[in-house]
Design brief:
With 413 residues, this protein is an alpha/beta fold. It contains eight helices and 23 strands. The N and C termini lie close together (6 Å).
């Protein structure tokens, strides 16, 4: 992310607001950043804005929880985007983005239609590409049965080792540790002590971005879960073959499960870096454009994580609401790493360089959700309560938990 100056009032928007006109804001993308941004814009912008949500799919999926599904330890919450559009008084349009015409303030869809905007928030995510040849590549959208086949091979004795690989360039390594620990727990239940489960990573320390306390805790969790850790992995070209090595030795296992590498999505009309990601400032404004913001995995930031995507969406929403005339002081994006490590027995909350605590979990007791968003988390909580019949239908939180403010970690990137 590039440095930025604080937003300044938009004279055109101010004049429109004084004339009683609303700012037309389009949010493109229905994932964590998109829904967080939509909720934040309605809460912060109120009657100053008209909202439209554009999404290729019509369902919100809590993708970080998909790691639990092959093990029957939980599930990713899913609900129609029509619900959140209704709750935010937004118009929902199904469509995939094919380009942006900033000069004309128009979002172009693949079907040839266009959607006009006064302000545009892009939350399109990233495309995922396989890195390790001949490995099974796990993604949040993968069929749980892909990993189920590996588990059956271990159970039936056709395989005795599985390595979960974090390739160089992967922007978020936590799922590999979770998959390994939940696999090890499943193996223990099979009473097959000869099975080896390992994590192979280019990191010098596991989850080093969280700091030394989290690294130490994760090492302890891996040891307690009988998961082998091998650090310093590299990809080496050996003739015509790309090979994964640790200390010069090729990685060998009966099954290799690798994480994918995120790459940017090409959006004609917008700038992009060498990997296709959108360069933005700390308020989410897209470089060299006007009235276009972006957040989430699509932007040029080295880490890709749902909690960070939500923080980026909050910063962009504050900036857009300010442009619309809201009486707020937009804060820049300041990253806080906040996550839940799922081991199969419990969920452990990880935040920056300290362990915030452990959430018990066990067989038949699903692990709670992993999304940490200033507006999205309370919205999902209210949805769950409404589904259970203990609360009315969800409303937009105009005064969210102050502890879910924009992040606090010092970061010079």
């Amino acid at each position: 992310m590039t440095s930025s100056q604080p937003p300044t009032p938009d004279s055109e928007a101010v004049a429109a607001s004084q004339a009683g006109e609303r700012l037309t804001v389009v949010v493109a993308g229905g994932g964590i950043a998109g829904v967080e941004g939509l909720l934040a814009l309605r809460a912060l912008g109120g009657d100053l804005i008209d909202l439209t949500l554009v999404s290729p799919g019509l369902e919100f999926v809590e993708r970080p929880m998909t790691v639990t599904e092959p093990f029957a330890l939980g599930h990713a919450r899913r609900f129609p985007l029509e619900d959140v559009a209704r709750d935010t008084q937004a118009t929902l349009i199904r469509g995939s983005v094919s380009g942006v015409a900033p000069r004309w303030r128009s979002l172009v869809l693949e079907n040839g239609a266009s959607v006009d905007y006064d302000a545009l928030l892009l939350t399109l995510g990233a495309r995922l590409e396989a890195v390790i040849p001949k490995a099974l590549t796990w993604t949040p959208d993968a069929d749980p049965e892909l990993l189920g086949g590996v588990l059956r091979d271990l159970e039936e004795g056709y395989a005795s080792s599985v390595a979960f690989v974090i390739p160089p360039g992967v922007a978020w390594s936590l799922p590999a540790y979770e998959l390994a620990m939940m696999t090890s727990r499943q193996v223990a239940g099979m009473d097959r002590s000869s099975i080896e489960v390992s994590v192979i990573t280019p990191e010098h320390e596991p989850l080093a971005d969280f700091g030394p306390h989290v690294t130490e805790t994760l090492r302890h969790e891996l040891q307690a879960g009988h998961v082998h850790l091998r650090t310093g992995a590299t990809l080496v070209q050996r003739g015509a073959e790309l090979q994964l090595e640790v200390n010069g030795e090729p990685v060998r296992a009966d099954h290799i499960v690798a994480l994918p590498r995120p790459m940017g999505v090409l959006i004609p009309g917008l700038p992009r870096d060498e990997n296709g990601f959108i360069p933005v400032d700390r308020h989410g404004r897209v470089r060299d454009t006007e009235r276009v913001w972006a957040a989430g995995d699509a932007v040029s930031y080295p880490l890709k994580h749902g909690g960070l995507a939500a923080l980026q969406a909050d910063a962009a929403a504050e900036s857009i609401a300010f442009v619309a005339g809201a009486d707020i002081e937009p804060k820049p994006f300041r990253p806080t790493l906040d996550g839940v490590l799922l081991t199969g027995e419990r969920g452990r909350r990880l935040r920056d360089d300290a362990v915030a605590g452990a959430v018990p979990a066990g067989p038949g007791r699903p692990v709670a959700g992993k999304v940490a968003g200033r507006f999205l988390t309370p919205y999902l909580t209210r949805r769950d309560a409404a589904a259970a019949g203990s609360e009315p239908a969800p409303a937009i939180d105009h005064d969210p938990d102050p502890h879910l403010e924009l992040g606090s970690r010092k970061d010079s990137r």
